[in-house]
């Protein structure tokens, strides 16, 4: 099955823009979805499809993709955005792949 | 508002079978649009997809777990269940259930909403 690779940790200054990336062969064919997970909580979907936000997700979250890399961008990061972020996609079949997660620190 | 809730034993002995049930409320499990999934997260580690099932019982499993996993559905109760056999300490994790959506002409897949998670510890 497909593998998705994420940087283990990323940091951003409060109010600045940060990009979290996800790499994998499946991303050449499928969109990535993105989840935010805070300690002790279940993951929350923040981006799905090409670049769609569920109701209640701030518009500072956006997504893009190029080749085998998908990106989640937070424009104007807030303290409450500090969390783990996971990407996932369909692999080249009926299965599902997740990235290893990126820990975002807001300084 | 759709909600999912995991239930089952929090402690399982090595070599035994882990069993969890997910109850769906605020909506019906009997939809042609969705699959229903199990995922897990070992302590301090990332998310792992275990498998999906639809209301008709059509299922897909993570190849790395396929030999030990069975997911079943009981539409009359709006529930689906996970059985993982021959467990070891490596199966200790928080187990989540979630609704799986496949859309954008099959190009996009996501899980939403999620249950709160159920910690299962494998220990004698």
Description of the structure:
The complex is a heterodimer of chains A (107) and B (124). With 107 residues, chain A is mainly β. Chain A has strands at residues 5-6, 9-12, 18-23, 33-37, 44-47, 61-66, 69-74, 83-90, 96-98, 102-106. In chain A, strands 2, 4, 5, 8, 9 and 10 form a six-stranded mixed beta sheet that branches. Chain A starts with a strand and ends with a strand. Chain B has strands at 3-7, 11-12, 18-25, 34-41, 48-53, 59-61, 69-74, 79-84, 93-103, 108-114, 118-122. Chain B is globular, with a radius of gyration of 14 Å. In chain B, strands 2, 4, 5, 6, 9, 10 and 11 form a seven-stranded mixed beta sheet that branches. A four-stranded antiparallel beta sheet of chain B has the order 1-3-8-7, with no helix packed on it. Helices cover 0% and strands 54% of the residues of chain B. With 124 residues, chain B is an all-beta fold. Chains A and B meet through strand 8 and strand 9 of A and strand 5, strand 9 and strand 10 of B.
The rounded distance between the terminal residues' Cα atoms of chain A is 36 Å
Largest sheet of chain A: 6 strands, mixed
Rg of chain B (CA only)? 14 Å
Structural class of chain A: mainly beta
Strand content of chain A: over 45%
Low-confidence stretches of chain B: none
Mean pLDDT of chain B: 96
Order of helices and strands of chain A: EEEEEEEEEE
Largest interface by residue count? Answer: A-B, 27 and 29 residues
Distance from first to last alpha carbon of chain B: 39 Å
The helix content of chain A is: under 10%
Helix vs. strand class of chain B: mainly beta
Helical proportion of chain B? under 10%
* DSSP strand content of chain B: over 45%
Short description:
The complex is a heterodimer of chains A (107) and B (124). Chain A is mostly beta strands and 107 residues long.
Describe the SSE topology.
The complex is a heterodimer of chains A (about 110) and B (about 120).
Chain A: E1 5-6, E2 9-12, E3 18-23, E4 33-37, E5 44-47, E6 61-66, E7 69-74, E8 83-90, E9 96-98, E10 102-106
Chain B: E1 3-7, E2 11-12, E3 18-25, E4 34-41, E5 48-53, E6 59-61, E7 69-74, E8 79-84, E9 93-103, E10 108-114, E11 118-122
Parallel strand pairs in B: 2-11
Antiparallel strand pairs in B: 1-3, 3-8, 4-5, 4-9, 5-6, 7-8, 9-10, 9-11
């Amino acid at each position: 099955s497909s593998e998705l690779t994420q940087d283990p940790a990323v940091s951003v200054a409060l109010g600045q823009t940060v990009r979290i990336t996800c790499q994998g062969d499946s991303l050449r064919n499928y969109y990535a979805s993105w989840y935010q997970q805070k300690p002790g909580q279940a993951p929350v979907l923040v981006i799905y499809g090409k670049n769609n936000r569920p109701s209640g997700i701030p518009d500072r979250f956006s997504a893009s993709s190029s080749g085998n890399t998908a990106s989640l961008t937070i424009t104007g990061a807030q303290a409450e955005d500090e969390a783990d972020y996971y990407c996932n996609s369909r692999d080249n079949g009926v299965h599902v792949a997740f990235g290893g997660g990126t820990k975002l620190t807001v300084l | 508002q759709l909600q999912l809730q995991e239930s089952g034993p929090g402690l399982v002995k090595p070599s035994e079978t882990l069993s969890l049930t997910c109850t769906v409320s605020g909506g019906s499990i009997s939809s042609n649009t969705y699959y229903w999934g199990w995922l897990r997260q070992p302590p301090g580690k990332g998310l792992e997809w275990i498998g999906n099932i639809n209301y008709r019982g059509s299922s897909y499993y993570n190849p790395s777990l396929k030999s030990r996993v069975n997911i079943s559905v009981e539409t009359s109760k709006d529930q689906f269940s996970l059985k993982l056999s021959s467990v070891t300490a490596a199966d200790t994790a928080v187990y989540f259930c979630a609704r799986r959506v496949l859309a954008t002409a099959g190009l996009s897949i996501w899980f939403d909403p999620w249950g709160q998670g159920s910690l299962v510890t494998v220990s004698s």
